[in-house]
From TrEMBL, chain A:
Bilayer topology term: Multi-pass membrane protein
Protein name (Swiss-Prot/TrEMBL): FtsX-like permease family protein
Source superkingdom: Bacteria
Gene Ontology BP terms: lipoprotein localization to outer membrane
UniProt domain ABC3 transporter permease C-terminal: residue ranges: 279-409
Domain MacB-like periplasmic core: 19-233
GO cellular component, one term: plasma membrane protein complex
Keyword check for Acyltransferase: no
TM spans (from-to): 20-40, 280-301, 321-343, 382-402
Compartment(s): Cell membrane
Pfam families: FtsX (PF02687), MacB_PCD (PF12704)
Lineage: Bacteria, Bacillati, Bacillota, Clostridia, Halanaerobiales
Main localization of the protein described in the UniProt heading: membrane
TrEMBL record, chain B:
Keyword Nucleotide-binding: yes
InterPro entries: AAA+_ATPase, ABC_transporter-like_ATP-bd, ABC_transporter-like_CS, MacB-like_ATP-bd, P-loop_NTPase
Family: Belongs to the ABC transporter superfamily.
Stated name of the protein: ABC transporter ATP-binding protein
GO-annotated cellular components: membrane protein complex
Gene Ontology molecular functions: ATP binding; ATP hydrolysis activity; transmembrane transporter activity
Pfam family, one: ABC_tran
Swiss-Prot/TrEMBL keywords: ATP-binding, Nucleotide-binding, Transport
Amino acid sequence: MKFLINIALKNMFRNKLRTFVSVLAIAFAVIVIVFARGLIDGMIESSYSMYIHYDTGHIKIMDQEYEQKQRLLSLAYTVDGIANKSLSEMENELLKLEGIEMVIPRVKFGAAVSTEEELVQMMAWGVDGQKELKFTNLERELVEGRMVSSGNREVVMGTELLRRIDKNVGERVTMVFNTAYSSFQGATFDIVGRIESNLPLLNKDLVFMPIDTARHLLYLEEESTELLLVTDDRDKAINYLPAVKNYLSANEGERYLAQEWREGSSFIQLLQVGERIYNFIYIFLLLLASIVVINTMVMIVNERTQEIGMMSALGLKKKDILKLFILEGGAMAVIGSFIGSIAGGTLTYFLSDIGINYGTAIEDMDILMTTIIYPNFKLEHLIFGFSLGIVITSLTAIIPAYRAANMDPTEALRDI
Amino acid sequence: MALVKLISLEKIYQQGKIAVPALRGIDMEIESGEFTTIFGPSGSGKTTLLNMIGCLDKSTSGEIIFAGNSINQLSRNELADIRRYNLGFIFQSYNLIPVLTAFENVEFAIRLIDKHSKKDRRDKVMHILNEVGLGDMAYRKPNELSGGQKQRVAVARALIKEPKLVLADEPTANLDSETSEEVLQIMKKMNEELNTTFIFSTHDPQVMEYAKRLVEIKDGRITKDQRRD
């Protein structure tokens, strides 16, 4: 075997240009795979994180009716406690369930600010400032001022939203909104913080205010439009969900709905399907690159027909000839895949720091995705690209190798 | 006991719907240590006969007995084993592996046998290369050798495993007469010293001069079989 490896490696350098082209084709495919995997992983991770932070939590509890009307920011279907217990008692009971580490209440409603030119519409969130800072990335994105504190009539807004209403941190803003009784109300707030984020929702649509202030202004009791449960591990949330559902149905029948984060968004479900489809695309891509290798190997077999006949005459068996050619194709696969995974990894590592700005391409899409996507550099992506490159290319090298191994030695020796 | 015994050997090639007979009933015995030349015009069946004896091809009918065993029913792998351990081949176009040195090309044949230590292998290869006069060119690649030197490497490769039988298909066809003479001298020497059996197929009168036995073949039949002292 060692001897066959030695010959296979030496054979690779017989026609250096041809070997170089084959190796380059494999390397290029592996670069694309490693980079695409990093990019898609980064995109998916970013989306998962955004959806979990700003939409679903790990488990989201809401009124059954609210699920249909949440896009309308309705205040008619709230979570207001369970079985004659208050919302805070309900939160405490939820915290006792296995895996639940935090309960985050949010009151979401529509609001508007009138400027000289236009009525700027926005989405207002009544939140527990400290919990939000702990759970989301807001700490990093709060570039000026501070987060809202309970008991105060104050707001935090995104940079773009502040620009549109022509206000700055430290100034005051008057907002109008509909209360839970559908009456039109107005209130003035201190602007205490500014958020600068790649997430369009945070930058141009959202205004945070203390949840107690929001409840007071909206004439809500101790209510939330939704409760987000944070578990010790997002991937285990699906395991904790049945206990949450049991708790809700045992106390309140079918009134409340609990959804695991994956169920909450069709975009996340789409990404998950996409993740599987991409694996097929990677294999297809490598098969394309393998055509170059097959072509090279077919040429090699044709050129070395007499040599195959000679080796057969010396007593080399069919399986040895098969091994010899697979080893040669395999060696090209190893070199190409190695170069490809290192180059692809380097590119991913470099861009994981800088990010790729999708800018306006996704800005207006109704999805929670940041405008700058950071490819995810992971060693497993390099190993995946490297292994897939070797396996697929070596497998395709079997086709010409099999042809060589099956050659009739007398026919092969006759070949000129 | 004859080393090789051919009994009513026939080979018919099928070319489309046409059956082309290459051998039409060959009966022949070859004893150990013979230096036999098979000659005849092109297309007479020399190479086909050599391929049959060399276990590279199977006959259409008849029987081949090699070292007392019939090889007709053997599988492709079993035939490869016979070639690996018992037969040496020398080809007209040398058929050396261009990426290997002369040493490695010769070593290739005994690497397949797998019974020698690294040191034994090295000693054996250098010994045989010295015997064919290429000891100082052991680490040259085929493209750095002349035609005669390449054929000497091929001879060394055929003889390194001390086979029972060496088959040489037109071994001097690409060599000038002086080089042919040198190569034939080496083979003759090996035949005498090691009692290795040689069978040549050739047109070359120079090769025929060396033969102890001349077998003429025409249209797939033996037309003359003459032994010389």
